[in-house]
């Protein structure tokens, strides 16, 4: 009985080691521990850590974060050559991105392949018809810039963060192009919508990263845990933001 148990444990260890092996054709880089890989240090930005990895491993670096393998291209020529190929046109199926369209893989941001190409062509064609790249859009940008400068003048002379009017100005350029409408940059209602969007991202990003990097957690983590850490609230945020945008 003991022999069979030891043999079973040995086989499990061998199978686990085989599944965790580093692919031979993978670029050099940190591999980390099984299942969790090597997470980025929280005290330093990921971009700064990649710069350090580049010094050690070269212009193409692999990094296993969680159970996902990320490949970093660290020079212009490599990036240009890679993204000219269709093999690099797909989108990563991040759990966080799927939340924003209820995992339907529709729209522009969270689609891939032929669907993404067709949606992109459709969007660009109609955005050009609506004024993108034309004089009308330039005039709209200049008008928002003037309004923004006037609003900034009201905040001059005292320290503080950038006013929310800058977010409204950016929104207005797009909103005028697609809906022929704009908001005053100091409009409290539309600023509240922007703050709600920002809040949803801040609360979401703190916890969802675990599910992005370790997708094997998704089916085993109970719904009440997702709700407790705030992930389950995102659809509610999106619904509120959509309703606010309709009203605005």
Give a written overview of the molecule.
The protein has 248 residues and is mostly helical. The protein contains 10 helices and 2 strands; from the N terminus they run H-H-E-E-H-H-H-H-H-H-H-H. 57% of the residues lie in helices and 5% in strands. A two-stranded antiparallel ribbon has the order 1-2. A hairpin with a 2-residue loop joins strand 1 (60-65) and strand 2. Helix 6 runs antiparallel to helix 7. The radius of gyration is 24 Å and the shape is elongated. The chain starts with a helix and ends with a helix. The relative contact order is 0.08. The mean pLDDT is 78.
Concise overview:
This protein folds into 3 domains: 24-88, no CATH class; 93-129, no CATH class; 134-247, no CATH class. The protein has 10 helices and 2 strands. With 248 residues, the chain is mainly alpha-helical.
Write the layout of secondary structure elements.
Layout: H1 2-19, H2 46-57, E1 60-65, E2 68-73, H3 76-83, H4 95-99, H5 113-129, H6 135-154, H7 165-179, H8 188-213, H9 223-228, H10 234-247
Antiparallel strand pairs: 1-2
Helix pairs in contact: 6-7, 8-10
- Work out the count of structural domains: 3
Oligomer: single chain
| Total beta-strand segments | 2
Task: Indicate the low-confidence ranges by residue numbers.
Answer: none
Pfam families: p450
GO molecular function, one term: oxidoreductase activity, acting on paired donors, with incorporation or reduction of molecular oxygen, reduced flavin or flavoprotein as one donor, and incorporation of one atom of oxygen
Signal peptide: 1-19
InterPro entries: Cyt_P450, Cyt_P450_sf, Cytochrome_P450_fam2
């Amino acid at each position: 009985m003991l022999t069979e148990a030891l043999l079973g444990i040995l086989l499990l260890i061998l199978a686990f080691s085989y599944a965790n092996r580093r692919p031979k054709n993978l670029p050099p880089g940190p591999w980390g521990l099984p299942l969790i890989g090597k997470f980025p240090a929280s005290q330093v930005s990921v971009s700064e850590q990649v710069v350090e990895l580049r010094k050690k491993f070269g212009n193409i670096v692999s990094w296993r974060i969680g159970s996902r393998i990320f490949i970093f291209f660290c020079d212009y020529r490599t990036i240009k050559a890679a993204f000219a190929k269709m093999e690099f046109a797909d989108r990563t199926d991040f759990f966080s991105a799927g939340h924003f369209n209820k995992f339907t893989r529709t729209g522009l941001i969270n689609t891939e392949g032929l669907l993404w190409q067709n949606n992109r062509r459709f969007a660009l064609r109609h955005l050009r018809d609506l004024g993108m790249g034309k004089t009308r859009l330039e005039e709209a940008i200049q008008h928002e810039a003037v309004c923004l400068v006037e609003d900034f003048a009201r905040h001059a002379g005292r320290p503080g963060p950038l006013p929310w009017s800058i977010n409204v100005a950016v929104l207005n350029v797009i909103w005028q192009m697609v809906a022929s409408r704009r908001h005053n940059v100091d409009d409290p209602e539309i600023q509240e919508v922007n703050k709600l969007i920002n809040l949803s991202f801040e609360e979401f990003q703190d916890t969802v990263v675990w599910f992005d990097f370790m997708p094997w957690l998704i089916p085993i983590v109970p719904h009440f845990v997702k709700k407790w850490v705030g992930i389950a609230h995102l659809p509610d945020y999106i619904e509120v933001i959509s309703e606010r945008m309709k009203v605005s």
